[in-house]
Design a protein that fits this description.
This protein has helices at 4-11, 27-30, 49-55, 57-66, 140-143, 145-150, 194-210, 225-232, 241-249, 254-273, 282-292, 295-321, 333-337, 340-345, 348-351, 367-381, 389-400, 410-416, 420-434, 462-474, 491-504; strands at residues 43-47, 72-76, 154-160, 177-179, 185-189, 215-219, 326-331, 357-362, 439-445, 479-483. It is globular, with a radius of gyration of 23 Å. The two termini are 19 Å apart. The longest helix has 27 residues, at 295-321. α3 (49-55) packs across α4, α10 packs antiparallel against α11 and α20 (462-474) runs parallel beside α21. It has an eight-stranded parallel beta barrel, surrounded by four helices. Strands 4-5 form a two-stranded antiparallel sheet. The chain is α/β, with parallel strands linked by helices.
Length: 505
């Protein structure tokens, strides 16, 4: 018998835009019998604490368990990443409450109680909560424990690193920011800065020492200096004292690296402006810099290894406190799907040595416009300036190893998205790389907003969503994680997700 909530979504005008209840995967897919989830598979969702308080903890958990087939929730312990920027138009309107414009709310960003003594080895301090903030006197991770346990659901911490724009919310954060080749502060923290590392470690140790938490998913969403120059035309980072010391100790000349990156950046600025007096092609000129300054590649590689060291140390420290905690790894979209320098620097099999699961982002819908405008358009104007956009897309597909079925034509990327075949390709690549050493939890995109021209909704087609779920499991995913965040996902879409999970059990 259908629940009242499901009936409401099926019959309401808001829910009819993407009626999901009652949809099922095509029998020709299920007939193969290859895709199966076990009763122990991690089926979870990412969400901000405000959603649970806004809608009610029991109500949200009941819906997620009964309709979306979730056995756990992954809740942000800190929301420095930008939960407060989303306007009402991109929030779900079928949750039973009227969504409120997050950009007009004063929500706290640190949602746990921290002990001052835990941070003795770092100058950084988390945001101090005061009574001007919504839910300032609530402790979600204490309040949710019993309701979750009563429903047989687990509670995991989710955390993303904060960008430079959060320097005013974290004491001394401006002192740990990266430095670019000109010595200016950059867009995020330096992974080699000991104060930053100790702050991340202390944050997680303090949480696991003081709360009953079942696990962690941590991640950073930044690429390296080489991608900044080649694919974005940005000033390359980081050349701070800590990065210089690290690389110098490894025999990599910091000054030659800085000089090489600076010259490469200046050249790319001319390419972008159309003022380079080209004798050879852009690609030939870029490779001239790489061969003359071999430090460029070495510097880029060491930047990614610094991030891996943080991930490895976090794993060790959390496991020391709680050996049975599930410590997972978030791999953001550029890393999972289009940054060739990151992919070649850090393989999934390397990550598998210090994680209980890897969650690659696989946004089959929104990846279409992202690929069209964040990747192909930018690449063609910079490193691939010798080619037109059609040729750049074709080279991209070949270079990244996309199967014929996953390749969407340029004119259909923005409106159609990518699709389930793309999900299959990327999950299988991850599964084949880890070779059973760790679990692969597919980060399935649901109603992920589009940032082009301001934030706009980009709703998932329910049947394509179900097919993406199926193809992820068919490719070998051990679990599923509904992404990006609950407050963006329509309940109708989550019901479609849940129906697919039921058929795969």
């Amino acid at each position: 018998m259908e629940s009242n909530r499901r009936k409401f979504i099926k019959n309401s005008a808001l829910g009819m835009a993407g009626v999901a209840a009652g949809l099922s995967l095509p029998s020709k897919l299920l007939a193969h019998g290859k895709a199966k989830l076990s009763k122990d598979s991690l089926i979870s969702i990412q969400m901000g604490p405000h959603s649970l308080f806004d809608e009610g903890i029991p109500q949200v958990l009941d819906f997620l368990k009964e309709e979306a087939m979730m056995n756990s929730v992954m809740i942000y312990s800190h929301t420095y990443y930008g939960v407060d920027r989303k306007p009402t138009r991109v929030l779900a309107h079928d949750h039973g409450i009227k969504p409120r414009d997050l950009s007009q709310r004063k929500l706290r960003m640190s949602w746990v109680k921290h002990s001052e003594s835990a941070f003795k080895d770092t100058i950084l301090r988390h945001q101090q909560t005061d009574n001007s903030m919504e839910y300032f006197n609530r402790d979600l991770f204490e309040e949710i424990r019993k309701p979750a346990s009563d429903r047989g659901m687990k509670v995991y911490i989710r955390m993303l690193e904060a960008g430079a724009n959060r320097a005013s919310n974290i004491k001394n954060y401006d002192k740990v920011l990266v430095k670019d080749v000109y010595g200016n502060p950059g867009r995020g923290p330096c992974w080699n800065n000991p104060d930053y590392r100790n702050w991340i470690y202390a944050t997680m140790e303090d949480i696991f020492n003081n709360y009953e938490i079942d696990g962690l998913q941590y991640g950073a969403e930044r690429t390296g200096p080489l991608s900044q120059v080649w694919f974005r035309g940005e000033v390359p980072e980081c050349f701070c004292e800590h990065c210089r010391a690290r690389n110098s100790a490894l025999g990599i000349d910091p000054e030659r690296a800085r000089e090489g990156y600076q010259l490469m950046h200046e050249y790319m600025q001319k390419v972008a402006a159309g003022t380079d007096k080209r004798v050879d092609t852009v690609m030939v000129n870029l490779w001239k810099h790489l061969q003359k300054y071999h430090e460029i590649l070495a510097w880029n590689y060491q930047w990614f290894q610094a991030d891996e060291e943080i991930q490895q140390e976090l794993y060790k420290r959390v496991k020391k406190i709680k050996p049975d905690a599930l410590v997972g790894r978030h791999v953001d979209h550029q890393r999972s799907s289009w940054d060739i320098f990151y992919r070649s620097a850090v393989e999934y099999q390397q990550m598998a040595n210090y994680t209980d699961f890897i969650k690659p982002i696989l946004y089959h819908d929104i990846y279409g416009p992202r690929l069209r405008w964040w990747v192909i358009d930018r690449w063609q104007k910079l490193a691939f300036n010798d080619f037109d956009v059609e040729e750049t897309l074709s080279i991209f597909y070949d270079m990244m190893g996309y199967s014929p079925a996953a390749r969407v034509t340029l004119d259909r990327l923005e409106t159609q998205g990518m699709g389930p075949a793309y999900v299959y390709d990327e999950v299988k690549r991850c599964v084949d790389n880890v070779a059973g050493k760790t679990d692969v939890v597919a980060g399935i995109g649901i109603d992920v907003l589009w940032h082009g021209g301001g934030m706009q909704p980009y709703h998932s087609d329910p049947l394509r969503l179900q097919k993406a779920v199926y193809r992820a499991v068919e490719a070998g995913a051990n679990g599923l994680l509904a992404s990006r965040e609950y407050d963006e996902m329509r309940h109708s879409s989550l019901i479609a997700f849940g129906d697919a999970v039921k058929q795969l059990m």
